[in-house]
Amino acid sequence: MKKTIIVLGIAITTLFSMKSVNALTLNDNGDFINKKGATITAEQYEVLSDKFTDTTINILPQAQINYLSNEQNEINIERAYSITTDVKDNLGNIISTITIPATEEEALAVANNKSLHVLSDGKLHDTSKEIISYGLRSEPIWQHTTTSKRITLSYSESAYDPTNTNYLALVDVHWYSNPSTRSVDVLAIRWTTSKPLNNVVGYYATQSNSLHEQGYGLDGNNMKRTTYGIGESMNLFDTGSQFDMSMYVEFDQYVGEYVYATYQHATTGVLLSTSKSYSFGNGLGGVLVYNPSSYANYYDGMAGVKDTVATGCHIDC
């Protein structure tokens, strides 16, 4: 089980800072050009690199580069609080979710006390004083960390451009250690409201390490997408260290309150065709349902993450 505080307001995509190989192209005048063709000045890069990995900076469009690197921008946020507790099984699948409205005082109490959770009666309980038969996770639902790696998800409205009503989902994966098995991993997200394929108006995914970088475009051979999700199979580089992965998806329309994301690392040799033998649903990491189900055993079963537009900023808010 885990909990989160939901703060309603304008959402801005931000991620924790972990440095990766700098794959940005340097111009003669000292500016950078990223994979989206956006120009990034040295001053902008200095601001952005405090919040994002180079992998993420490399796939942000120009409008978002300009907005997120402008330290003068001020966002007026009207705050309304609620508390959500998710019950998960041992594979990280969400079994049930309970959300209650909360005062600011209650929300702050939950943020500072890992024992406070919403239980099945719909009330807030101090579980340190009660007998609980299941494990609890106090980590934010938009981020999950293990000893070897971390996944972070941000799902937000395009607050950086008031004329743009699109929605953005950005997933960032960072390895703290080097993967011993290097086969075909899967990075994927799913949403809750069926939308036509052309609702995805922007997409880019990448894996990088100290020696290599590979980008993945829309509808490439490694991609799978339906009206409920999009996934990328990534054959990990055989050489190099300091692995990072990311996925950027821009939607033309709202795709539901929640977006779910997962990164599944292959623990044995996996063929590309096998890695793509899934549909989108409440399976591995809350995203991947393999058919046959035995294919799920080829992956490490790392818990997934989810985010809602209502959460606002995750960092430096």
Can you give a write-up of this model?
The chain has five helices and 21 strands. The chain is globular and about 60 Å long. It has helices spanning 42-48, 54-57, 62-68, 104-112, 272-275; strands spanning 2-7, 25-26, 32-33, 39-40, 81-88, 94-102, 116-118, 124-126, 143-145, 149-157, 167-175, 184-191, 200-208, 213-216, 223-226, 229-235, 244-251, 258-264, 278-284, 288-290, 305-308. With 317 residues, the chain is mainly beta. It has a domain at 143-311: Sandwich (Immunoglobulin-like). Strand 3 (32-33) and strand 4 (39-40) form a beta hairpin. Residues 1-22, 74-78 and 130-138 have low confidence and may be disordered. The strands form six sheets. It has a six-stranded antiparallel sheet, with no helix packed on it.
How would you briefly describe this protein structure?
With 317 residues, this protein is mainly beta. The protein has helices at residues 42-48, 54-57, 62-68, 104-112, 272-275, and strands at residues 2-7, 25-26, 32-33, 39-40, 81-88, 94-102, 116-118, 124-126, 143-145, 149-157, 167-175, 184-191, 200-208, 213-216, 223-226, 229-235, 244-251, 258-264, 278-284, 288-290, 305-308.
List keywords for this structure.
single chain, 317 residues, Immunoglobulin-like, mainly beta, 10% helix, disordered N terminus
Query: What would you call the shape?
Result: globular
CATH level 1 name of the domain at 143-311: Mainly Beta
Report the CATH topology name of the domain at 143-311: Immunoglobulin-like
Largest sheet: 6 strands, antiparallel
**Termini gap:** 25 Å
Q: Any idea what the radius of gyration is?
A: 19 Å
On the 0-100 scale, what is the average pLDDT?
A: 78
Give the structural class.
mainly beta
Query: Helical percent range?
Result: under 10%
CATH architecture of the domain at 143-311: Sandwich
Strand tally: 21
Strand portion: 35-45%
The number of helical runs is: 5
